[in-house]
Amino acid sequence: MSPILLSAAVCFLLAGAVLCAMLSRAKAANAIGGIVAVVGAAVAIASAVHALQTGDETLQLPWSVPFGSFHISIDGLSAFFILAISAVCALGGVYGVSYLRHYKGKNLGASWFFFNLLFASMLMVVTAWNAVLFLAAWEVMSLSSFFLVTFEHERQEVRKAGWVYLISAHVGMACLLAMFILLGGQNQVMDFDQLALPPGVSAAAIFLLAVVGFGAKAGICPMHVWLPDAHPAAPSHVSAVMSGVMIKTGIYGILRTLTFLGSPASWPGWWGWTLLVAGAITGVVGILFALAQHDMKRVLAYSSIENVGVICLGLGLWMIGSAGGNTIIAALGLIGALLHVWNHAIFKSLMFLGAGAVVHATGTRNIEQLGGLLKPMKHTGVAFAIGSIAICGLPPFNGFVGEFLIYASAFGGIVGLGGSAPIACLLAIAALALIGGLAAVCFTRLFGIMFLGEPRSEVARHAHEAGVSMRVVLWILAGACVLVGLVGPLVAGVAALAAEDLLPSTGLDIGPSLGLLWRISGASAGLIVFAGAFWLLRRRLHAGRPIEKAGTWDCGYAEPTSRMQYTASSFSWPVIDMFRHVLRPTLTRQLPSGPFPGRAHLTSRTHDIFMRFFYVPLFAMAQRLGQSLRWVQHGRNQVYVLYIAVTLLALLLWKLGTEQ
Amino acid sequence: MSILTDLLMMLLVLTNLRMLASSRVAVCIQNVAIQAVVLGAITFSLSAHAAIAAGVIVVAISTVAVKGLVLPWLLRRAMKGAGIGREIEPFVGYASSVLIGAVLLGLCFVIARPLRDTSHAGASMLIPVAMFTILTGLFIIISRRKALTQVLGYLTMENGVCVFGVSLAVEEPLLVEMGILLDVLVGVFVMGIVIHQINREFDHIDTDRLSVLKD
Lengths: 660, 215
Prior knowledge:
A: 660 residues, mainly alpha, B: 215 residues
């Protein structure tokens, strides 16, 4: 029943997408595109809920492609991801309708075609049970998101971002192709229920190919370089969908591949170490670079990298716990990671949509130009504040719940595991703590510079609140942050359903840990009630008294201007300076000198070190190598035919030679 | 019957060598036409072992009609239109072309030895001759300068492919044969038009001088 329902949702989305593409009137396409996304999401959510209630079901139809079959199945893990994908896509769709309305003269039909195509392909990715179908859906997902990123293709930096994304997506795809051929090529099966490690193939190779191939989508360092370019380039609702859920399909892919490689207890310990160290590096590097950015969507993109790092830390603990035979530590790590998948989908889409509302109101993504936006944009500001607290992993909101479980798993591992595992757990705790602290600095800076203080430019002074439908979406997401924070144990229960098949032993009782979570929920509720009571008290004290507005105390200086505030750069400089050997910021400055200093200026830029010191030299070398082969192509078709003839003859002779 | 087939094969080899040796475009066109007739005859002679199927007759007759009559007529028209009588200054001279052709012929017999089992029992020469025809066509495309001569090379290669088809099984699906024939017809038709246009635009049809369009 549920796979049929899901296929119906996918077919509906595809039909809706085609309809949007054919509509010539931008306004109609815009409205219909949003409606299609919402209805498709409703059907997909129904199928996932049905699957969670009744258990796994499959649907298999023949398909004429070699090794392919239209085989889809929904188990707990798939259902878990379907719920996140559908919810974020539906909200992104509603938001997108009013966000895109202001792009006059753009082909909105094409944008909605690719949006709904992306939605449908993501649903197929998490439910496909055949490698050929999976790879086809994966490729459609990459391509449709590429076209969404290049929506404003008339701008050069958008085209560049699109290229970087396209290349990294296909490098990842190449790894996945190799991986599935290694897995299924020998036995000529490509259905997931029959895929297993064939004899003579190294499991480590498949694991590493999966981490690199899926990691390129998820944004695991150093394959993360496309994210900071692509997210600022894309429209905000697309960034929300891509960062909130599309990169998570990489996490899904890693989890799904691991199920082909035998029982979790049999995995070697260094797999867990690999994911854990990759997660720690990804998390720390991501949040450090987030701190150094001036473009708000670039900050959020780097923060997505950081959160993928946190999820990988959880997965690493899960694998280390499994290898050590301790189911409870493994379960806490995995459930924590899965919870963080949901949580990040919620708060990151909230942040991107909030940032979109600000871009919409001011026309700039540069936070140095903003300030004081909380007054004109109260709703957006409060929702953004809730998202900021949640993303730092602070109580009482949802970010805390997932990270708490990962912490619990790591602390449990220190005492409960033998061998080198406690060192890994200590590393995870240290990395999580460092990430948490830096995230608090990063989002204090982002929120503070954007929403507090005085406007730093004319555009910020004339900002206006977002439209009703955008505000509603922001409030739904902010509400979800609060709600998941309060009913964390229930959500953890759903994640436990998804995690069931991935644990070394069944019949696990995570009751005691959930009990602890309930106590946290109680404390969170208390905190919220306490804060609410304070707010009411403040209102009562203010009631009936005149409220005056005055300038901030300026230390006696006669003419303060709005430029005499902390800037985003100055706020984060102490931390950046501390980590300057990692971040390598470039400064151009002219310091004031003499008793009557003239003009002075200071600019700091922080480019991605992996892009600068690894990918740019690598691709430059590839280009030089390619250039040295240019003499092959000189325009004489006679010689081209000669190449073909010689190649064919050589192949024929070689083939005949080997047969004799 | 195998003597007749072998004779036809030899005729095909000789036309190939004549193709390599002649500088006159008109002779080359005539050559291609002769090859088409020989091709039709080979089809008949091979299928003479059994009762001749209606499909074979249709294929053979249409091959002769298209490749022996329609295409030569088209090419002659293109030749007159472009005012090209002969191929001057080919990349490889005529004497060396024939020598290279002889080497290729030997090579084909060597290559074809392991493949012989798959072909007709009665025609051991079919595969080497087919390959020789294909290689001759390719060689003409590589070594000649004029676009028109290159079209002739393409047609020669196509004839070789046809012999190959005949050698593997007499009764290839009718639809496939006809499809290939139609492809060749349309291809040469288009090439004829293109040659005409190139000639009008540039006053010559030397392909080596059309190399600016690369990249």
